Amino acid sequence: MSVDRTENKNDRKGLAQVGYCLKYLMNFLRPYKGGLVLGLLMVVVANITFAVMPVVEGEMTTQLFSDGEAILKGVEGAHVHFDVIFGIMGTLVIIYIIKTVSQLITAVFLTRVLQQAMCDIRNALQKKIQRLPVRYFDDHAFGDVLSCVTNDVDTLSNALQETLQRVLAAILTFIFVIGMMFYIHTILACIAILIIPLSLIVTRFFVTRSQKLFDTQQETLGELNGTITEMYGGFNEIILYNRQKMALDKFHDVNDRMRKASFRAQFASSLISPCISLITYLIIGSVAVTGCLFVMNGTLLLGNLQAFVRYIWQINDPLSQISQLSSQVQSAFAAMGRIFNLMDEEEEVQNGKVEIRPDKVRGEVTFDHVVFGYDDETLMRDVNFQAKPGKMVAIVGPTGAGKTTLMNLLLRFYDVKGGAIKIDGIDIRDMNREELRQLFSLVLQDTWLFKGSIYDNIHYGRLTARKDEVISAAKMANVHHFIKTLTGGYNFEINEESSNISQGEKQLLTIARAILKDPRIIILDEATSSVDTRLEKMLQDAMHKVMDGRTSFVIAHRLSTVRNADLILVVDHGDIVEQGTHEELLAKKGVYEKLYHSGTSLANHQPVC
């Protein structure tokens, strides 16, 4: 999409924001310009017939009035000219048919174009989300992002479906109707068109004050969705700790703010229509009185006065519609602002200077004077260590010490602010991110499985793998026997919440998926924390097999998991305070030695640095 994004989105306000949103939207409509142009052309045809109708209807009134007046005066041979009346009626029928057909064609083509464009916007949003850096999701609630993809797109879709045709029709109505009014009578036209500037003044007065309210409404809606997602995600914990009242109070607070924001926005917007109606009635009264004077002195036909009143209502109708649609229009622009601001977010840079061949990578990992911090806060000041190819590195330390952050830097979820991280001597910032991540398998404490068969979930690790390779990976992860006990075996369907298998079994499946990928480097982030002692033993046996010849990083709380590591890193407050083998660290009688003899979990123990 070719949109100028050099301007800071926070600097765009008012008309600048509206113009930017429309320009961005046109990029999604442009691929369907054929259907769009045809639909809009039919809008023009419909509004031409709409503008001609009052004049033709007025001719019928004028003819009947003229014939009736002649009959009342006793003019010889005077009669109602039915042939003329039927001719006018036939013309009206043709006009009505053209108007109806053109409106039908407009509805078909504009609906198709708009829904195709909305489909493209959803696809673009999904593609954008896949390219966003991890830090974006650290700063934005999942429910807010979900609201943007669902509610905001739906708001935009509904608004465009309702307003695009009607707003365009209103503009064309103004042009054609005003032209017809000046064609009929200049003085009355000057009086009638006062409705437009007066209505615009009223509309602008309310719109400028209500747009901020609609922005607040959409933001609050995003917050409400985030709260709902959070509550349902932690539903079991809420019930367990009897925090239902607290959860309801939180929901009621956000919901009440949503109610107030929606009321203020809708109320401010709803004031436009009655104000425009008042202006219309005043203009009609003025035209009626003045027009009657012109009819009496013979400078205006009665049918044309009738047409004039119809034209005033034709102007009032789109003005009233626009005022009624103003809430949808403003909601649409608020939604577009959120959608296109998300699309403007900075993406992860994928291009790298060095091409990686996974089969040639040995797996030597070096942290060379690494400096890193979130925002302006420095977490790591000078991290140095080297992981030899095929060796196991264990990372221990209290919760929040920076263990997972080390691995996030290695995977380039974040980039270092100083120093360098190297694989086989190559700075990972010179590597393509996708190629870099092909070297890794990652097993997290929080398991992720998708709705589908067990086979599909394991096969996800390497889509080119054969069935026998999938089964082999499951056997190495010691989960094959469990799978065979299930109905359907590898075809057993996992539900959306993965609630039909246990947490430990889910962990084993994710490990099988990681094994299938056949990576050069393996990361286990507290992967054994969700399994019992028996399963942990099975898991360790499997991991010893898969780690053979591969560099591995293990983040664990249990000393039994890390004591056989080739290198142990003790992390605290982001820095490595000790490193060495199990025996070397015990001999130092430092932090690790205290941990080992304390008999407590590594996660709960707070090292003294």
Automatic annotation (TrEMBL):
The keyword Amino-acid biosynthesis does not apply. Its main location: membrane. Residues 365-598 form the ABC transporter domain. The chain crosses the membrane at residues 36-56, 84-110, 167-185, 191-207, 267-296. SMART domains: AAA. It is found in: Cell membrane. It is a multi-pass membrane protein. Gene3D superfamilies: ABC transporter type 1, transmembrane domain, P-loop containing nucleotide triphosphate hydrolases. GO terms for molecular function: ATP binding. The keyword Secreted does not apply. Keywords: ATP-binding, Membrane, Nucleotide-binding, Transmembrane, Transmembrane helix. InterPro entries: AAA+_ATPase, ABC1_TM_dom, ABC1_TM_sf, ABC_transporter-like_ATP-bd, ABC_transporter-like_CS, P-loop_NTPase, Type_1_exporter. Signal peptide: none annotated. SUPFAM superfamilies: ABC transporter transmembrane region, P-loop containing nucleoside triphosphate hydrolases. Residues 37-331 form the ABC transmembrane type-1 domain. This is ABC transporter ATP-binding protein. The lineage of its organism: Bacteria, Bacillati, Bacillota, Clostridia, Lachnospirales.
